[in-house]
């Protein structure tokens, strides 16, 4: 079958494309923006990529068109599909129909940490010899790909609450029908499609309704998640948390004796310490991610001891505090953070690890929610863990970052073109500096430009 995917370079759609190729289909696709790491994966899989949405790409007509949720009415390719009467579906529906039926689905949901937790869970199952299939919105370093069919009934899927398609406004995750479900956390996000937090919680309640009675929900102890479960729950629930400041342990699963930077922690299950993790990751957010993954893995028979050993060898995920280079004592990281909570957690984790070293954050407020200014009052404080923040003011954003700079607890500046941002960061960086680039997009290729200028600076200095 020839499948053509509109919006193929999104993390979900690109991963789905790789599964379709592995199943033997001929896959082509198009997108407005084509950039690594997804474009690299797709080209390696032999998938033809087309820049833009010219309707001519639909000639000759494919057998099926899969339409990504970033596309809407008015898009030239979408209009051509409708006018020609071509068969079409959503990515989430096709995943359900062709890959998830009859399998034990382990779904990872929540506002933050979905990609990392899904990657941890898939790696734990892999180390347990289960050879799981998976579809993840990022590239786990241990696997080098974001999706695979797998050789067992087990399938790990990153479960996103964003809507399915222009013709299906339900959250994507209601299609997945998990037997094991992680709800990692819950905050207001996606302001372009949800009016408030209650609207998001309602979608999570719909997800909870799909978990069978003999399934398991692994949930954080956050009030926002508890409110979802109180709307109705028909499955066993196991909660997880880090040890509270007063020493009281909360939840079935608890992280105890946690190192200040999160690089090691013990695991307590219902009061008994069962394992300890010593890994390369940092931050309390990753400790919570690891706990959730261990709890979900236990549901399919993996012991905490084996899970801990797997996490010890977990290498992280591309674009999640991925160290791209070290040039003349300056470390450059790429991070996907696009929400104040994620920015704060990432910088806190790095600060705990590097101590007094200088941290420079380059941030692009790219997500729809950020561009709408929904979280503008939280952005300044979210960067308190850095020594300097360079904010990118993208063209077309209808509010100014000046107010964020004005209220920043640390020195902050605005730049409106990539060259200026690179120049500022390079001029202000010296040995022992950590530059963290934060964006959920390509950020105009700023990462490689930054590394190239640092190399150039080092060359001139020598």
From TrEMBL:
GO terms for biological process: cell division; cell wall organization; peptidoglycan biosynthetic process; peptidoglycan turnover; regulation of cell shape. ATP binds at residues 110-116. Its cofactor is Mg(2+). Residues 319-441 form the Mur ligase C-terminal domain. Pathway: Cell wall biogenesis; peptidoglycan recycling. InterPro entries: Mpl (IPR005757), Mur-like_cat_sf (IPR036565), Mur_ligase_C (IPR004101), Mur_ligase_C_dom_sf (IPR036615), Mur_ligase_cen (IPR013221), Mur_ligase_N (IPR000713), MurCDEF_pg_biosynth (IPR050061). Belongs to the MurCDEF family. Mpl subfamily. This is UDP-N-acetylmuramate--L-alanyl-gamma-D-glutamyl-meso-2,6-diaminoheptandioate ligase. It comes from Microbulbifer thermotolerans. The lineage of its organism: Bacteria, Pseudomonadati, Pseudomonadota, Gammaproteobacteria, Cellvibrionales. The gene is mpl.
